[in-house]
Amino acid sequence: SSGAILSYIMCKAMNRSLPNVIFGGYSALGEGSKTSDRNSIQTYQETNVNSVSANIQNASNIIITPGYGLCVAKAQYPLAEMVHELKKFGKKVRFAIHPVAGRMPGQLNVLLAEAGVSYDDVFEMDEINDDFKSTDLVLVIGANDTINSAAEDDPKSPIAGMPVLKVWEADNVIVVKRSLGIGYAAVDNPVFYKSNTSMLLGDAKTVCEQLLNKIKVDLQQ
Question: In what residue span(s) does the NADP transhydrogenase beta-like domain sit (predicted)?
């Protein structure tokens, strides 16, 4: 059935067995990097729309990594329009989609297509993961667990071994989220505190609309 196929896809993408996902989740898999175990205060860099707009305009090669937060905020339309504007001025802009991003596999692909994003600009994790290291700027919108570096760097993490998008390998990373809150896996994300990451906190749709308007004005000057 379609439900069984979706379950298989999700389990494979998370590197987990079906019984583990159903009965154990992530909580029983590891001891590292849980929010409740945080013993030290980590600092992060916060940015604003004007600075991010300037960063985007200065970048030639951009990858956008959307997650569940984009779906909830319905931010795909202003985001798609922003990408259209950037491509008119010669920017290379692509989307990186994790197999389990969104409510179910394929949801983000559908939402982006509905908003007018070209299929040629949307790439699956296996197709684009090696490209982050040669990317000027990554714009993360509403993603958390699917970009968590602890999956690779912390063998004690509950998500250790889960394939993730290696956004932190880019020159600069901008993360758009409502807050620094945890994702479904309930673990901290070290990417938020890396030196090449800046946090733009706010509603994804509102932020994308503000970026779109700012970029339109700046690029036409």
Answer: 1-213
